[in-house]
Please model this.
Amino acid sequence: MESPFKSDILKNRVALVTGGSSGIGLEIARQLGLHGARVAISGRRQDVLDTAVAVLGADGITAVGLQGDVRSAASCEAWIASLEQRWGLGLDVLVNCAAGNFLATAEELSPNGFKTVMEIDALGTFNMSRTAFPALKASRCPHGAAVVNISATLQYGATWWQAHASAAKAAVDSITRSLAMEWGEFGVRVNGVAPGPIEGTAGKWVHRIRGVSGASQLV
Model:
């Protein structure tokens, strides 16, 4: 589909997409790059990052991969420092897309499994946003910087085998509202987007749920 935006609308802008090496995050990074932004993507696996950067580069996009974990504030700090060294002070777009999920009934879900998803989604969103805030305030974009937190639709009702992810995304939504209220006066817009499942490795759970009697109406 042809983009309704000018191809250079993000020229000279710097964007960071956490969890940007695959899935929705990679396509977000690609679209930002196709519209002129210099794009950084973060992830835990260097090999996956390298592949994603090559994919973006094949589209003529200036991209860099940043290895680390959003659960670590030190990783987030290192990423921002690396971007400032590479492209100068100021971050124009931050997309918090890093997330973790798996299928588990509440009975089978371990405390560590629940904690892990909460930390990747909620703590990761907070860590990255908080660390990036000074760089976002330094954005040279005349309209200010933008933070987009990727949420989900799981928490709006009830979803089978998703107690952990539903709680995590509800926390992301709350963080989004709080940051939007606090940071607006600094010219930093904070919004959330809640996409549904997509085809791919992470989206296969939808087909499993649909095979459960009475579950499909909740998907």
Summary: The longest helix spans residues 111-137.
